Amino acid sequence: MTRFAPSVIGMRLDTAPRLVTPPLLLRLVSVVAASIGFYLPLSVVPLLAGPVAGLATVSLLVATVAVELVTPRLVARAGYRWSLAAGLVLLGAPTVVLAVDASPVVIVAVSVLRGAGFAVCTVAGGALTATLIPASRRGEGLALVGLASGATSLLALPAGVWAAARWGYPPVFVATAACTLLALLSVPGLPRRTPAAGHREVRVAAGLRSAALTRPALIFAASTTAIGVIVTYLPLAAAGLPAWVAPAALLAQPAAATAARWFAGRLGDRRGPGRLLTPGLLLAAAGTAGLAGGPLLMVGGALLLGAGFGVLQNATLTLMYNRAPAGGENTVSAIWNTAYDLGMAAGALVAGLVVASAGYPATFLLTAAAMLPALALIRRDRHPSAA
Questions:
Q1: What is the pLDDT of residue 387?
Q2: First to last CA, the chain
Q3: Cα–Cα distances in Å, from 198 out to 126, 256, 327, 329, 355?
Q4: Of 109, 143, 194, 282, which is most buried, counting CB atoms within 10 Å of its CB?
């Protein structure tokens, strides 16, 4: 298995190449726009959907996963600019329809289109981002992009619900479309090259056969199961607790994740992202177990879960990009994002089957325990001969 080059790990950051460049700044425009486009209406659509809220969410998720796996082929043919533009249009434009028609069929159709658009934005955009960041500062660069995305989602998610309660649903959907489509103005300034330009394209099927890529993805997926559980069931578990508990916990988790991504990026560039996998997983598992406690433990658990999750977000993605050959950026982005979404879906689905009979505290404890077998994957990743 390919390991890290000495020129990448341990390089002094004061002698490293420039991180923030005009193309990366332009890329941050579409990062923020895609985050607004996804998160601003994310909790508003289920409120509008009512009885078909679950179907709308499932449609969004299924479309996202399905399109993530084929986006590398799209980028190889159309290039970064056209692919990212198409993703922004699909993510933003359909939401306008919900301002005039909220029938179940329309809600599901819009959710499918938005899921497809978000998939293209994350996979094509993520791969483009990787090409704009120097390899020696990849962890820090990904952390910077994650900070922009995380801070935006942290504000957009509650802002959508607040705006819908104050002004109604249509303004939220119109604002979503406007913010997302305005980012199209930044796309012409981005590089047009495809990952196959000058290099052989690495297809998703080949990437899935590489343990060097799939092991970090599976380790990350172990933590995303807990995210699926917390966003789905924590508000219900906190129903009998003081009113501030659920909002505080749901704010603590993404806030800690955003901060931890930055920390992990800088530390990973110095010492190697692989060293962060074990502490990240243990933090996430401990935090998930803490959700089974009282009000303070629940908020503290969400904080620890967010910190561990943020560390794993940065460390696994950086590790995968470091290991992929030139031309494999889209494949890495597709596999990592698919692991993210499938892990969340699996966590929410399995927890739903357990909650009815075991209760919320036991479900949180079982979720934490289910994450620990990923430690064996980390050991195999460090010592390939053990696989």
A1: 45
A2: 11
A3: 19, 39, 8, 13, 52
A4: 143
CB 310 within 8 A of CB 261: yes
Which residues contact residue 70 at a Cβ distance below 8 angstroms, ignoring those fewer than 6 apart? Answer: none
Query: To which H or E segment does residue 141 belong?
Result: helix 138-167
- pLDDT tens column, 294-340: 999 999 999 999 999 999 999 999 999 998 887 788 888 889 988 99
Taking a C-beta distance cutoff of 8 angstroms, is the pair 221, 320 a contact? Answer: no
Backbone φ, ψ for residue 103 (5° rounding)? -70, 155
Cα separation of 169 and 343, whole Å?
30
Q: What is the pLDDT of residues 216-254, one digit of tens each?
A: 999 999 999 999 888 778 878 888 889 888 888 888 898
The residues, ordered by sequence, that sit 6+ positions from 129 with a Cβ below 8 Å of its Cβ are: 24, 27, 31, 141, 142, 145
Nearest to 223 by CA among 182, 177, 282, 273: 282
On whether the CB atoms of residues 74 and 83 are closer than 8 A, the answer is yes
- Are 52 and 108 spatial neighbours (Cβ–Cβ below 8 Å)? yes
- pTM for the whole thing? 0.79
What does DSSP assign to residue 51? G
Q: What is the separation of C-alpha 340 from the centre of its chain, rounded to a whole number of angstroms?
A: 6
Distance CA 9, CA 59 (A): 41
Q: Which residue has the tokens 């941050």?
A: 28
As to burial, measured by CB atoms within 10 angstroms (0-12 exposed, 13-18 middle, 19+ buried), residue 178 is: middle
Residue burial 291-307, b: 16+ Cβ < 10 Å; e: rest: bbeeeeebbbbbbbbbb
Alpha-carbon torsion angle 179, 185, 186, 191, nearest 10: 140
